[in-house]
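Model: You mentioned two targets. I'll fold them one after the other.
Researcher: Yes, keep them separate.
Model: Target one:
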Amino acid sequence: MNRKADRERTSTIRVSERRSGHLQRAEKRFQPKLARITLSIANPEIEGHEGDLLSLDVYPDMTVDTLRGSIQAETRIDTTAQHLYHNGQLITDDSKTMAELNIGDGDMLALHVRDMRGSTGIPTPGASRARPDQSSSSSSAGRRPGVEQDPELVRLQILGDPRLRAEIQRQQPELSAALEDPQRFAQLFNASYERERRERYERQQMINRLNEDPFDVEAQARIEEMIRQERVMENLQNAMEHNPEGA
């Protein structure tokens, strides 16, 4: 009897151990897999903070909103100033999870720091231009109250919108080619702004000249060409104004 009881106890222990092993393997299988990602931080507002690296642990079901909170806790960078990029694409949906965005272990994200608070809208190449009756020597020419000309915000917006990027590539290929180079983009953007400001002033002079002599063929042809160029810029501006960042 004692031997039989011992065998039964041994069998019970083995069954229990097998069940325990199965449960442990099942629990391990259903545990979310921890992944470590690296963020390359670019903060143009602070010298020496270009290319800083930050490593964070994330889970597949972690949302972008939670990730932003973790970044803020580690770096004190406000969530509203965080522009996150994965594989060159701006992340705009904070409800998406790491799994949905295919962000996994070893991935690199780019974090561009740019505070959007206080902005009245997304600046565009034509968002702040001189009115025709303004002098080109005016220090405030090309500025609308409350709108700050910021090439970097424009660049970030274009990078995050494939449709807008295609439009830029079609209408301003040189500017499009500089999208990955913030400094070069800013130079071209500002040059384009100054060029258009001068052209607007010249157009106003032409209009005044035409009003004085309606039969001046040269002035008429020049005005028509300027109007054509302005329409091209207006199409680009409309595309940017109707595709705000985060849409």
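Model: Target two:
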Amino acid sequence: MTLFSAGLLRSSSRSLASIQSWRARPGLNPNLKITHLSSSTSGTCAATISTRANPAASRSAPRSTVPIPPCRASVRSFSTTTITMSSTDTLIELAKARRTYYKLGKNSPVPDAKIEELVTNAIKHMPSSFNTQSTRLVVLLNEKHDKLWDIAIAALGNLVKTGAIPEELWKNQTLPKLEGFKAAYGTILFYEDPAHIAPYSEKFAMLKDHFGPWAEHSNAMHQWFRVGA
């Protein structure tokens, strides 16, 4: 899809004004009729002029194309990524089909290599403000995944011992949920690297308070990519 800036309209107005001025020059036949205007982004223009002295003359009368004074246009064209109906439909269907699954299991519908490929593509292609690329992803599968949730269960279990988490809440809600997560095949951890963001905050001091939220926006896009995949 190619889009054109408003400069095209402005340049067209200048082109017409230039033609009218050219046609009004002394010594030219006042019955000359402009029948076609063409212009290019380089600023050159041409017009097809009817050379008939009598406007009512036959339409088969000869015509010639003559140059007109240059009209320096401010036309700018730029291209954006082509969005096809099928691709937008696919994105919508992915959003509709997204569900949260609570009964997780150790069977994966795709091989480990495919999971790693999807994560690599997310890191490679997801955008970030100022191209900071501060998002970090860690893939944990099989025993490494189990170890992560054992650590989480032990850490929160200590909070039960100190009274920070009520024991009833722990037994009836928190622990079953953590064990449900552990029952899954793998885990993908999403991080932001503050050390990587800091230089941008220093370089663009006026925007330093925004880089944190912008990084979170990029992180969310990485997560959405994984959900859609």
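Researcher: Noted. Anything on target two?
Model: The chain has two domains: 2-78, 99-228.
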